[in-house]
């Protein structure tokens, strides 16, 4: 490519989800910013995941932007936990209100990034043929944006439609009169199935691993609660950043072992009915760190399943036994277990008898062919690394990111990768990611990145990289904090074990956001420790 023909920018932002939108807003006045987005609308996760029942599981007064006080004062969330249409509407409102659309090129995914070591600039190529040279790239590509589809053969044989919840038709789907097969009982499946079951003639749920699920307690937003948040927003946002998960969900001081069985039962019952998602995980100080304390909560949920689900055999199949509660992200539902009391819902165990293939009529296991009119897969994501590995990224000395990450991601602070200078990730692998409320923590990460870029200009540098030594120190920190919790006892997208053959260790930083942010801030303060600038 003739360099003279390239369009010039200062910063390319990849992705117009919530972090990408904020990155544009934060950097647009001081830099020439171009943002490329694969979808034909803004909102990222909340653009793609428009399946029935899609809803956030963090209360919306928290899960929203804090960068503009007028915005947070004026915006009204109709519900406590907002549904996808409201979240998408909010993303569009922000894009319009702050004039961000002028910077965004929709339906134009970035296909390759190539670092030019002579000029210290990235060359960015896109699906529509745009070629941009820029000093910095900010990858706000999403932790959960590349759908994972089941590997079964015969997809082309099946006569009916096959949907993935993360790529749901904009016009919706009418399942009236249909026999629907549903695969995936994680957070997504648990939200979608109770709604599909109300419409479909029959719903067959193919379950590989049962899920722990607690009721969301969603409700219309209480006006007094909303007024209270709006009156206190600046300090609330600041306080959120000082908490483990950037959220109002807090651990108590006492252990499960400090309580009598009666006290435990009362605490757990209150948590279940709290209308505050995740409360079960913070009933006691040690739910996430002590296997015995965790098992007390697990058994409580199994008891709830047995109470709710009328058929004892189905109830037992729904009881999770192979991993601790919270080891995988706790699912938050509305009528999930109750759904199994419907006459038109059947539960099938595909751990014992796995699905082997699509057929012309539906799906087959070794022993059974299931006849279906439509199939829905809610089989998760190639999480954290998928969205970066999808782009052909070439760093120094021709090294490809996909090769460097062949055995799992390596990063420093989850923000940069050695040998790939001037490329920053937001919510990348080895950041707190989904263990911290993602809008507020995303704003923090963008602000940190903007500070690094501003320092580069102030100090007259054109290249910032990290080192393999720094990456190793970060890997040790990520491993050390994950060893302390029960997360290591579950196979999930946190540790790359949700996809057969995927490599990588624990890919989320679970040392808490205050520790994460103070380590990022300290690296800068201590003369860019772990970075090399020139
Ligand atoms: P997920 O948690 O990875 O769940 C995927 C499900 O598909 C699991 O039940 C998995 O079974 C099953 N599965 C995958 N491959 C299969 C196969 N070949 N055969 C049978 N079953 C298979 O994905 P997700 O439900 O989309 O959720 C991902 C994350 O998105 C969540 O953890 C959460 O962070 C986020 N999310 C949040 C919300 C919210 O805010 N409310 C809603 C949805 C999602 P195994 O467990 O056996 O692997």
Distance between the termini: 26 Å
Give a short account of the largest sheet. Answer: 8 strands, mixed
Tally of helical runs:
16
Residue windows where pLDDT falls under 50 for at least 5 positions: none
Fraction of residues in helices?
Answer: 25-40%
Here the CATH topology of the largest domain equals FAD/NAD(P)-binding domain
Structural class: alpha/beta
Q: What is the number of beta strands? A: 20
- Provide the gyration radius in Å: 23 Å
CATH uppermost class of the largest domain: Alpha Beta
Mean pLDDT: 96
What's the CATH superfamily of the largest domain, by name? Answer: FAD/NAD(P)-binding domain
- Strand content is 15-25%
Q: What's the architecture of the largest domain, going by CATH?
A: 3-Layer(bba) Sandwich
Give the CA-based shape: globular
- The overall number of domains is 3
Small-molecule binders: NADP nicotinamide-adenine-dinucleotide phosphate
In short:
The chain is α/β, with parallel strands linked by helices and 534 residues long. The chain has 16 helices and 20 strands. The protein has helices at residues 18-27, 45-48, 69-74, 84-97, 187-199, 223-231, 233-241, 261-272, 291-308, 312-318, 336-339, 386-389, 401-404, 438-459, 468-483, 513-525; strands at 7-14, 33-36, 104-105, 110-116, 121-126, 131-139, 162-164, 179-183, 202-207, 213-215, 331-333, 345-349, 355-358, 362-365, 369-371, 374-377, 392-394, 423-425, 464-466, 531-533.
